[in-house]
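RECORD TYPE: inverse folding
INPUT: structure tokens
STRUCTURE:
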């Protein structure tokens, strides 16, 4: 495989020429003046819906990064993106784009932040990699495993830095929980529970707008559908709520697999491997013709080497939202908002701050010494900060593209097994389904012309 970068970015050029004359790889700001333009990572942002503004806000706070371009195919969203960025910098330097390819053609842009719906992940990410940009890309890595494989290839072939929006890896409780498991402190791992949400969440408050109508003038609906199958415009399945229809998204299962399975894999040391079989256990699946047709309740079991069984479930009371590892000598549970628990008193700090009868702060993850934790996991100073640091150092981020790929695979295989209502055997090395042609076809999807999946 060709690992030579196809293009040299402005930042790589600065880094390599600095190294050649004996400077450290990161050009010190004193060379250019504090945060001079030439010492900043120039960035373009794609997609100004739910996650785009959140990521952008983080990058706007970093002085060594400058957002110089914004791209969206909804004119209102695009205006809001450009106004927000230029308002933050108090200048007019961030330019507006409708066509992502025009942004990729700009040689003065080092990095991109991608927060477009899942149907677009692969094409935009591959274009970014091929044009020599480093990429902060959202989870799940893509809408299908074939697309994920193509993104991984493009990122590797073009030596790009990749950070996935699986930001839980930059939070202390998730890292310490995974570290405790990785260091064998709950014994041999037997079971892992990955608890995800159920139902549909009306993020855009358009759940009652289920009629076919002409698309609004501000939206380029033809491009919005992109490589997916053309379907009539229905407001309830476009902005934000696209994830509840299988034409564009993958329901709660694929929306969340890149978070809690990502953490599960971290503790299991499975960032480069995966299950050997995925079994369907239960699913409540609306009719395929429903506007929101993704599974509302679901459960699968993924079998891993070492006889480890992972339960992936949404809407099942016995599987709590978050990640739980169960070993021969105890359990660890982690979730958002710092949630952390263990069956072993010595593996938690019990704080129990109370307001009256109510516990307002419960157990916390303990900071264990190097005598106990022999294998430390990657610790960042913030997920977005980690991306910028790695763009400069050319070292892997905490969630490189291969990790994102493997974190999402159990979700994709679960969905295939639920749809076919049969077990799927998977070769985690060859990354192929074994002995099932129909399921193998579901590893990819047809692309609507003129779009093509080309790594
Ligand atoms: N990391 C997290 O915690 C987290 C949270 C929410 C969403 N996400 C991910 O972020 C991504 C975006 O989700 P969202 O909820 O923000 O979606 P959204 O629908 O709210 O926003 C997507 C935006 O992308 C634009 N867009 C669509 N196609 C485009 C194209 N070809 N070029 C330019 N712009 C295009 C849309 O017009 C819209 O403004 C998804 O992959 C989702 O899974 C991650």
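DESIGNED SEQUENCE:
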């Amino acid at each position: 495989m060709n690992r030579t970068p196809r293009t040299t970015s402005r930042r790589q050029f600065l880094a390599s020429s600095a190294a050649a004359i004996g400077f450290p790889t990161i050009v010190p700001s004193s060379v250019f003046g504090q945060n001079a333009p030439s010492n900043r990572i120039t960035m373009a942002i794609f997609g100004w819906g739910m996650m785009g503004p959140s990521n952008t806000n983080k990058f706007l706070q970093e002085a060594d990064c400058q957002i110089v371009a914004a791209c969206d195919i909804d004119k209102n969203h695009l205006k809001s993106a450009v106004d927000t960025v230029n308002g933050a910098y108090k200048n007019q330097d961030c330019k507006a784009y409708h066509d992502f390819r025009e942004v990729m053609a700009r040689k003065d842009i080092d990095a991109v932040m991608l927060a477009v719906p899942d149907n677009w992940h692969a094409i935009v990410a591959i274009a970014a990699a091929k044009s020599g940009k480093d990429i902060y890309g959202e989870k799940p890595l893509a809408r299908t495993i074939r697309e994920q494989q193509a993104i991984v290839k493009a990122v590797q072939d073009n030596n790009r830095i990749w950070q996935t929006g699986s930001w839980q890896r930059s939070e202390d409780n998730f890292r310490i929980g995974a570290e405790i498991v990785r260091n064998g402190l709950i014994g041999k791992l037997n079971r892992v529970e990955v608890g995800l949400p159920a139902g549909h969440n009306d993020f855009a408050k358009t759940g009652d707008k289920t009629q076919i109508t002409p698309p609004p003038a501000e939206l380029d609906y033809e491009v919005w559908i992109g490589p997916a199958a053309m379907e009539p415009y229905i407001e309830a399945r476009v902005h934000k709520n696209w994830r509840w229809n299988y034409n564009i998204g993958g329901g709660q299962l694929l929306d969340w697999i890149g978070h809690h399975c990502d953490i599960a894999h971290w503790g299991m040391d499975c960032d480069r491997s995966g299950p050997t079989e995925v079994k369907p256990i239960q699913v409540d699946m609306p009719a395929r013709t429903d506007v929101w047709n993704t599974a509302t309740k679901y459960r699968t079991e993924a079998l891993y080497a070492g006889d480890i069984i992972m339960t992936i479930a949404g809407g099942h009371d016995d599987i709590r939202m978050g990640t739980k590892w169960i070993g021969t000598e105890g359990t660890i549970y982690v979730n958002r908002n710092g949630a952390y628990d263990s069956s072993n008193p010595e593996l938690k700090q019990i704080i129990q701050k109370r307001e009256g009868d109510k516990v307002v702060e419960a157990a916390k993850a303990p900071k264990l010494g190097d005598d106990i934790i022999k294998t430390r996991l990657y610790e960042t100073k913030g997920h977005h900060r980690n991306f910028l640091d790695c763009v400069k150092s050319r070292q892997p981020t905490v969630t490189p593209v291969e990790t994102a790929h493997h974190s999402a695979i159990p979700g994709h295989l679960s969905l295939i097994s639920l749809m076919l209502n049969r077990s799927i055997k998977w070769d985690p090395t060859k990354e192929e389904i074994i002995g099932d042609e129909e399921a193998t076809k579901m590893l990819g999807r047809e692309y609507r012309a003129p779009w093509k999946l080309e790594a």
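NOTES: The first helix runs from residue 10 to 20.
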